[in-house]
Prior knowledge:
Blueprint: H1 3-38, H2 45-72, H3 80-105, H4 118-203, H5 207-226, E1 232-234, H6 235-253, E2 257-263, E3 271-273, H7 277-289, E4 296-305, E5 308-315, H8 322-326, H9 329-342, E6 347-352, E7 358-365
Amino acid sequence: MHPYRSLSSKLIRWLTYVAGWTLFALFFISQDAGRLLYQGQRVQWHGYLVVWLTTAYAWAFLTPFAWWLAGRFPIERKPWWRNAGLHLVSSFSFALIEAVLFACITPVFGLPWFPRHFAATFRAVLPIDFHLNVIIYWSIVGVQHGVSYYRKFLERERLSAQLELRATQLESQLTQAKLSALKMQLHPHFLFNTLNAIVVLVRQHRAGEADQMLTNLSELLRQTLAGWETQEVPLRREVELINLYLDIQRVRFEDRLTVEISLLPATLNALVPTLLLQPLVENAVRHGVSKSSAPVTIALQSCLKNSLLEIQVCDDGPGVSGESFANGVGLSNTRARLEQLYGERQSLRLDSRLGGGTIATVLLPYHPEEDHL
């Protein structure tokens, strides 16, 4: 903070402080004057101003010391009666000190109400002001305790908000760590399956096809790793990746694999989990195409149902039981990722098709990419 601004702020606080005690004096002046006016008596304004302003400014001088004592020896600490007794003695002491200050100052103004020397003025004013001074001291202690409690409350609220924010951040970090761990399991699972397929081609002396699969695999891994830290991508981007994967499988199965893609244009900008389609299509290949000597068609479809995005991966292969289908690493991780990202607002269902084959249906909240809103 600029030094002049800090000095100005302190000056404003002190002026406000003095103004507060001045209002204290004016309150009691108006009380005494109002009583006299009501009785039809003449008000000696000069005398009342001197008396009450002297009292107020004497307490303006004493208040910082009383405030410090109240903060240094709070009554709520155990044993509370010790600090309460200390403040009782202090209240008597401050009452006497205020009377001393009053007796030192007022004779200067030559008021007819009090003698013109210290001792006589002190004896005259002590029985008048003592009880009021004790009340003022305890009022200062009460205000200090109230301010202290309020500050502690604000501090607890601030710490509570910080802890809540920290807990939220840790929860978010934990969720991201879980999702990243699931993705790290998914990549090796897919990679090993593809490398095994390449090994089979090499053993069958299909070197050209194996080379093409390696080229496609290299491009697929490059694009996948480029978005490694992203949990969600537009569906169109996910379809581009799955086409690279299907290019690998087309090399492997040649005419035995047919792919049909029918996506609703409005769904192409919908955000979906990264690598959502790959385990679904891989299972369709593994349980459909790999286990059939006849041609198999894999169909990829998408549509909107109210506020939900529905994606289906279908195959017309020999079919497989839903329990067996769901036990794979890819599908288990996909279920876990969907639950982490969307909670109960998602589902992954596996059904058998009439006439053979399997349908994998994914439902998740429809969230379009921001750039295309």
